[in-house]
Structures are given as structure tokens and as C-alpha cells.
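Working notes for the structural subgroup meeting. M.R. asked for a predicted model of this chain before we commit to crystallization trials. I am recording the input and output together here so anyone reviewing the notebook later can reproduce the run.

Input as submitted:
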Amino acid sequence: MDIKTRDLRRDFGKVQALRGVDLTITGGMFGLLGANGAGKTTLMRILAGVIPATSGQAIVGGHDLSTREGRVAVKRRLGYLPQDLGLYPDLTPREFLDYIGILKGLDDTAARRRQITDLLDMVGLTDVAGRKLKGFSGGMRRRVGIAQALLGDPALLIVDEPTAGLDPEERIRFRTLLSSLAGTRTVLLSTHVVEDVAQTCRETAVMAAGRIVFTGPVADLVSAADGVTWEVTTAGPAPAHGVVVSAVSRADGTRYRVVSAERPAPDAVPVAPTLEEGYVALMRRLSPAATP
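Returned structure, recorded in C-alpha cell form:
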């Protein structure tokens, strides 16, 4: 399910949340990276038909989201997991999904309940399907969220910061689940966690201050740090130049990975960059243009 936006803008009073977003997504799993406040959630909510754009155009699966008919058509084929999904704490996962299924128009009771059983198994919640949601961990709640988004087998799945607040094991489990879903549908993953995109997406876009500042293959974003990524091991203070991306204590001192346009220390050696370092390099390069 293709997504295309052109000069998309959204204002909240005097605040410009989106400032002319041009983006094309053609299918599979696509990552949308950016710091908190970059405009990712606003863009997700427009694409999900939750709020309208102030101006510009958003076309999803051939439907114009500026029209009521377009928004209705997209919502019929959409699964949406927002940052904060309200769950009813006194319901069980099975009861909650049954309720959401009714709201989505899945009127065949037997078929709806079969689908719910399959989804609970897919997200690993079959054993706790009879427990009330108020006793669930954050990771379990997010798995209920993805199950409700998948009700009706949507062609487009939009997930906003799905791994925020999860422990490492739950984050890995959730990333693996999302990757498995992208084979037959478009999955749009919005996150500020670079590792989530590195492990799941081939294509990505980066947002800053309401604008798209990069779009393309993940490998191209990594290459943004070619020639500016360094490693320094020292028992002394951290390098004074550049951005320290990581610091690992060792027996002979601390090993720093640094993004810097110049050699950050006399004994610094160049190293191949990671996606995180590519992202840092891009932000440093574009920070004047990305500042409101």
C-alpha cells in the first residue's frame, strides 16, 4: 500500500509541527527516525486519518486523505498502534480484542473470535489470554496493541514508538514480530531508537524540526558517517572534539567511538560507522538547516 505526501504541513496555533513534508513509501517495512518533537507522531496521525493536514497532500493507497471518503477508505485497510493506546484494565486480552473487532466492523462472531485466537498466538499471549490487562507488563501491553492493530488483516500498519520503555528482551521480540509482518503489507515504523530501524528496515527517512532531512536506503544513512567516525582508547578524559556515541570501559582505559570532522585525539583511528553514527553525523551536518 503506497504512501505519498507532497508539501504536507500541519500547524497547531503558532507551532509548525510539519513544514512541507515530501515522502514516498512503496511497501515493505519503512523506518521513520527522528528525535522526540521532530514531527513524527503528527505525520503518523495524519496518515492514519486521525487529524487533518493544514495544507499539502497525503495519498494513501490511492486515496486522498483530505476527503472524508478517502479517510474512510484508508481506515478500512489500516492497522494503527499509537504511542499511547488506551486499554481497559478490567478486560482480558481476548475481551479487549473482541470489543475492538466489533468496532472495526468484524460482524461475523465466529470468524472474529478465530482471528483473535490466531493473533493472541502470534503475539505470544495465548497463555495469559484470560488474565486482566491491569496486571500486564509494558511489553505485554504493546503486544496486545499490535494484535488489535492487526485485526481485519490490514494492508497498512502504522506503529508509533512501539518499543519505547520496553526492556531489551521485549524490544527484540517486538522488532522480530514487526519484521515478520512486513512481507505482505506496508509497515511504517516511527521511532527515535536508531537500533529499531537498523535491525528491521531497508529504507528509512529522518525527520528534524518538522521536515524530512534524509530519505533512502539505510546503508546510505550509515555512509553519512564515512570518514568522520573514530575510535579512541584512553585512560584519560573523553575526547574534546566531536560527539561521543559510545564509551566502553576496558582494562586499559575507556574505548570511545566518536563522530568528528577532525581527528578527535592524536591516537584516534578511523573505523567503519554504524547506523547510529550515520544518524549523528547527519544531524550534525544539517543542524543549522534543521533548527526552527
